[in-house]
């Protein structure tokens, strides 16, 4: 965990299918809300498909760098930021050479109507909380799906690190999600949660640089 950096510079050498399957297996071992297991993982290794995705990736990166990615984050060393930006641009310019791409997807099963259960739920929560719950249903559903995907993604990243593979999680593709889904024939009702380039690293792992623990702990309340 302490050396799990976002590794964006990859060799073009292929990654064996058996290793990619081990990464997906690690992801499947992650927790899933209600044990619904509504995930699927699109694994791209065909150079022709990767070449079709490369222009989409370039557009997403350029859009990000023109907005949120255009400023040095607070507390980050400007030189370290420039190194990160250089790695992002390298990944953008060499995206068509990416050996493998993993796209975690999720489709939450449609809940079955249960009027009696809804009444009991409303009674347990109270009128005001039940109203807030109804109004926030869209956010709650998004978090429910995400919480069933991202723990598995972290498993995948850790498994890649253990195998000596470089990987990094990105969600910039969401700026053009419809185009990505069309390029990969992903059904409209299925949501994508990340694009994870995977390959053998050109650089070295770790260590990660994070804020000290004492700066982020708040005990017994905010």
UniProtKB/TrEMBL annotation:
InterPro entries, per the entry: Nitroreductase, Nitroreductase-like, Nitroreductase/BluB
Organism superkingdom: Bacteria
Domain Nitroreductase span(s) in chain numbering: 5-200
SUPFAM superfamilies: FMN-dependent nitroreductase-like
One family name in Pfam for this protein: Nitroreductase
Name of this protein: Nitroreductase family protein
Membrane-crossing segments per the record: none
């Amino acid at each position: 965990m302490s050396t799990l950096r976002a590794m964006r510079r990859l060799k073009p050498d292929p990654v064996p299918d058996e290793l990619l399957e081990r990464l997906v297996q690690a992801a499947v071992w992650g927790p899933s809300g209600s044990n619904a297991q509504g995930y699927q993982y699109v694994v791209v290794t065909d150079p022709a498909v990767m070449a079709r995705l490369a222009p989409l990736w370039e557009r997403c990166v350029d859009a990000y760098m023109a907005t949120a990615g255009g400023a040095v984050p607070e507390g980050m060393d400007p030189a370290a930021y420039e190194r990160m930006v250089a790695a992002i641009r390298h990944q953008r310019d060499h995206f068509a050479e990416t050996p493998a791409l993993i796209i975690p997807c999720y489709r939450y099963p449609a809940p079955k109507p249960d009027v009696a259960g809804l009444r009991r739920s409303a009674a347990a929560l109270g009128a005001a909380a039940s109203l807030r719950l109804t109004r926030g249903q869209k956010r709650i559903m998004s978090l429910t799906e995400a919480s069933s995907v991202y723990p598995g993604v972290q498993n995948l990243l850790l498994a890649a690190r253990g195998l000596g593979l470089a990987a990094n999680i990105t969600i910039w593709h969401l700026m053009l999600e419809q185009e990505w889904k069309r390029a990969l024939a992903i059904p409209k009702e299925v949501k994508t949660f990340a694009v994870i380039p995977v390959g053998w690293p050109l650089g070295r792992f770790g260590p990660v640089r994070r804020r000290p623990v004492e700066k982020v702990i708040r005990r017994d309340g905010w």
